[in-house]
């Protein structure tokens, strides 16, 4: 019951070979999947009065997978695999000697350093996408997403195989999604990022976030009202979000630096590439009940990443730190862009991991 099963379950109704309907979704020949970045299941339930259309749909909760981070979840949407197989194991992670920011496909901490040539997206994530499989089966596959995502490293890595339509806002996203399923056997993946952005800046559940949720609800309603008869409209998310409580700054805690060669990830989940086994007990003692601190082997055995391939194993690091409660592990000097944010995600709490799966079937004529 994870995000990796969503697109294969939908494609089964489009008669794509090998696509299993493990989520038991209604079959349809025209399908729109809208992914709302940051729309956690708990957040939607808490603020249901501000999202009357979404709250009226058939609702169930599924798992975003770990880490509960945008690039990881979008890779699971696009490949039908969890992070341990597709290898996009977080916001930033080590690939060889580089630390890749998987959203911008640049060097971590330096968005100007484009890594698309050095770390070719189709090599970093080599598995065929579910969109490629659907297109090969004769399905008209489209992606409707922000203009800036066209040709990006992440788009190439996890969404290849679909026809890309770049959009600038709510209006062309809604109309583009509807237009994309005008013919028989068509599938559209539509992505909207702004609820997550607002949540990071102001906090999930803030007045600004609630108003953005109202806009998202209107967007979903407009799409559903314009879809052809017999279409299926599904809404999901990539993760939820928490409001930060305690802020721990790695850059001002020399004890945490000792034996750490590379630190990757993001404030709610960190990957430590280490030079000594002493890192694990030091971090466990320092963080205490504020985090789960596991070796890579223990995290893999616990199933955090799903099945783990050699491709992903080296990227996970030697030690995995998953924050608990609402604590965040910042890098005040090295990652200053996180310092002023209020909302975070990436760890294993229900607020971050539980995402909605909302289903609306348009009646046939």
From TrEMBL:
**Source organism per UniProt:** Lentzea jiangxiensis
Q: What is this protein called?
A: Type I phosphodiesterase / nucleotide pyrophosphatase
Please list the GO terms describing molecular function: hydrolase activity
One Pfam family hit: Phosphodiest
Report the InterPro entries cross-referenced here: Alkaline_phosphatase_core_sf (IPR017850), Phosphodiest/P_Trfase (IPR002591)
């Amino acid at each position: 019951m994870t995000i990796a099963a969503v697109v294969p379950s939908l494609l089964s109704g489009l008669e794509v070979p090998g696509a299993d309907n493990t989520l038991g979704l209604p079959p349809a020949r025209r399908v729109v999947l809208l992914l709302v970045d940051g729309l956690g299941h708990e957040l939607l339930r808490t603020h249901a009065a501000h999202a009357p259309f979404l709250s009226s749909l058939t609702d169930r909760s599924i798992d975003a997978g770990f880490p509960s981070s945008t690039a990881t979840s979008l890779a699971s949407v696009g490949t039908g695999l969890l992070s341990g197989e597709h290898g996009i194991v977080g916001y930033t992670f080590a690939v060889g000697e580089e630390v890749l920011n998987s959203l911008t496909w640049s060097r971590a901490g330096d968005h100007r350093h484009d890594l698309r040539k050095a770390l070719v997206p189709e090599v970093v994530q080599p598995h065929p996408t579910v969109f490629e499989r659907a297109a090969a089966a004769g399905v008209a596959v489209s992606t409707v997403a922000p203009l800036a995502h066209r040709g990006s490293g992440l788009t190439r890595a996890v969404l290849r195989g679909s026809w890309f339509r770049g959009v600038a806002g709510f209006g062309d996203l809604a109309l583009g999604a509807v237009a994309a399923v005008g013919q028989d056997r068509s599938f559209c993946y539509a992505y909207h990022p702004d609820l997550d952005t607002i949540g990071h800046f102001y906090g999930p559940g803030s007045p600004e976030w609630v108003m953005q949720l109202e806009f998202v609800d209107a967007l979903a309603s407009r799409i559903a009202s314009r879809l052809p008869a017999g279409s299926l409209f599904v809404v999901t998310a990539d993760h939820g979000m928490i409001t930060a409580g305690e802020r721990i700054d790695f850059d001002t805690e020399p004890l945490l630096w000792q034996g750490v060669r590379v630190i990757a990830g993001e404030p709610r989940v960190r990957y430590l590439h280490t030079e000594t086994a002493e890192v694990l007990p030091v971090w466990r003692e320092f963080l205490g009940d504020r985090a789960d601190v596991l070796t890579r082997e223990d995290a893999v055995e616990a199933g955090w990443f799903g099945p783990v391939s050699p491709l992903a194993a080296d990227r996970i690091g030697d030690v995995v730190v998953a924050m608990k409660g609402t604590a965040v592990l910042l890098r005040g000097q090295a990652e200053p862009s996180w310092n002023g944010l209020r909302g975070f995600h990436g760890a294993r709490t229900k607020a971050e991991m539980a995402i909605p799966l909302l289903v609306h079937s348009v009646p046939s004529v």
